[in-house]
Amino acid sequence: MKDIQNQRDYRNIPIDKVGIKNLRYPIIVLDRQNSFQHTVASINMYVDLPHEYKGTHMSRFVELLHIIRPDISLERFAEILEKMKQHLNAASAHIEITFPYFIEKKAPVTGVPGLMDYTCRIIGCCDAANKVDLVSEVHVPISSVCPCSKEISDEGAHNQRGEVRLSTRFKRFIWFEDMIELVEASASCEVYSILKRADEKEVTERSFANPKFVEDIVRDVANKLNEDKNITWFSVSAENFESIHNHSAYASITSV
């Protein structure tokens, strides 16, 4: 059959990224406590396309996933990117895998267990010189109490749920759990999936005793990462979904 994609294109314009987006696919990821866990990912896969080719073979991306499935982890990313380049005859490859990651957390007083889900993302690139770049990302729900509100109010202070997004580059393998715990320790309080009355009292009082602006949260995260010699680069942002304003509060820091 005629292969249209392999026909010559005469516009003389190369394409940086061409491929597939938002493919839902079952995967297995490493789990610090249970060795591994099953989840469902949304996957983006791209390669470069030289100026002389009309198109790439989209079906080959899915074929490749079927070959490597279901074990997709940071440790295998270099292999996956190399296979993408070979399978699609490309000079560079790029893959983004986003998935829910579940961690069992116990309520702080009663110890009642519940599952918290965190959005995690792995981004990998391999260029024409075979240099591999990996970024690990987590989205962590947090709770914060406004220091200003606490200072100026005779009673109480406004608090809200927020989200911190942390991306890192690193020398050695890093667990998602380590990134999540670092973020949670930098908030007024962490978020739980289940709280009994005694737990709710504890969380409320703990938050009130530890007020944080979004500026405080990103600076505290950045300070800890600057001291970690395994981290070579990071980007952290915090967004508070304000309870008394019709907007969010936001702050971000990206390392040099």
Description:
- This protein is an alpha+beta fold and 256 residues long.
- It folds into two domains: 1-130, Urate Oxidase (Roll), CATH 3.10.270.10; 139-256, Urate Oxidase (Roll).
- It has helices at 59-68, 77-87, 147-152, 176-184, 197-208, 214-226, and strands at residues 15-31, 35-49, 93-106, 113-126, 132-145, 159-170, 189-190, 231-241, 248-254.
- Strands 1, 2, 3, 4, 5, 6, 7, 8 and 9 form a nine-stranded antiparallel beta sheet that branches.
- β1 (15-31) and β2 (35-49) form a beta hairpin.
- α1 (59-68) packs antiparallel against α2 (77-87).
Fold blueprint:
Elements: E1 15-31, E2 35-49, H1 59-68, H2 77-87, E3 93-106, E4 113-126, E5 132-145, H3 147-152, E6 159-170, H4 176-184, E7 189-190, H5 197-208, H6 214-226, E8 231-241, E9 248-254
Antiparallel strand pairs: 1-2, 2-3, 3-4, 4-5, 5-6, 5-7, 6-8, 8-9
Helix pairs in contact: 1-2
